[in-house]
Structure formats: structure tokens, C-alpha cells
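Following up on my earlier thread - several people asked me to post the actual chain instead of describing it. Fair enough. Here it is, all 233 residues.
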Amino acid sequence: MLLQPAERLLKELSIKLRQAQQGADQLYFEFHHLHRDPTRIRLRFGQPEYAYERFRRVFEDRLQRLQLAKPVVAMRLRTSRLVDVAFRSDELPMQGLEKTGSDDAAMLLQRLRARLGEDAVYGLCLVNEHRPEAAWGRVKGRTGVGEGEQRWGERRPLWLLERPLPLAVGTRGPCYEGRLQIEQGPERIETGWWDGREVARDYYMASSEKGSRLWIYRDLNKQRCWYLHGIFS
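Reply from S.P.:
Thanks for posting it. Predicted structure:
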């Protein structure tokens, strides 16, 4: 029942945005009740949007997890600050409200945020930090942008374990799914003395007997202790 009046508001908004060649990266809905404060929701987009179909899809996804304590007697829609949008040469401001655009990745991101919550979907960015577990951060944008250009001494795996896994050590070295074959290394990382999280490690690329490529290290403070920290494949 709420979808029908919301669609009218979103269509009117889309027409006005196209006429002005502008877009909004956030929409705010207010659902008013009798004798109760209004229920407010925010729709957040990865980039300025103007297309009705995109607005509708994200609103419908968000509506599925909306809980209302009272019946709705009125509805209000407002936007964030509007941003100028460059239209494609084959697109007129009043043409094709049903078009969804070609940026499927942005649409997927918007719908996931609406369905799962904004904090559940985020990008990654590089941080100027040598300790692998602290060398990345979360960003709200569609893609992560590092604070500065990173020049790694060695290739890094995209899959880091939440906590390094201690490895068994045999007579011929560390073991995981059988004996590990060292392919490359060592790469020494010795840092963090100033903040109480000091590390002193020698990292190696290794392969297991089952074909996995792993990122392991030896703790220099405990010469016999080896750990699995990342997985390449």
C-alpha cells in the first residue's frame, strides 16, 4: 500500500531531476502517523542518481525490512543536496523513465545497502601501514581509494585470515595439508614498536601438497613458531 504513493513521488522527482540535469545521492522518506513521531528512512546511492527505476528498486528493497508501529497517514520525500549530472548523448532529460542505465554494479550496491543495511556493504582502501592486518580500512564509497600509493615489496594475498593460524613444524619445516614447499622469501616486516603492537616476522610464499598457494611467516621472536596468514588460491 505504501509503494503506490511512493512511486508517484519518485516519478515526479525523477522528472524534475532530468529537467534540471541533476542527481541526488540520498533520498529521505518520512512516514507520518497520528499521535506519534514520524518514521524516517534514508536511501543512499553510490553516486548521484536521477532514474525512477533505480529509485523504485532501492525503495522497494528497503521497504521489505521496514517495521511501522502505527498506520501511515501521510508521506513526505526530500533529497540531499543536488549535483549536476552529465547526461549521455543518446538520452534526453524527459526520455525513457523506465531506463535503468548501464551501471549494473552501482545498482547492485544500492540494492544491497537497502536490503542489508548501510554498514553491511562497504569498500576497501589501502592504509600506509606495513603490518598486513592493519594495512587496509573500510570506506563507504563504491570503490576504495588509498591514502597514498603503495609499493609492496612482495605480492599480497587478498584473503587474510582474521587471526594467523599456528602451523605444525616437522623435521623439514612448516606443514599445512602436508609439507609446505617454500617458493619465495623471506620478506621481513619488523615494525610497530611505538604503539605496543610490535611485530617481527619473515614472510614466505609457499605451496601445499594439495596445490594451495599460501602466505606464511616465521615469528622472529619465537624462532620455531610458524603461522599461516593469507591464502592466494
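Confidence is low (pLDDT under 50) at residues 91-102, 143-150. That should answer part of your original question.
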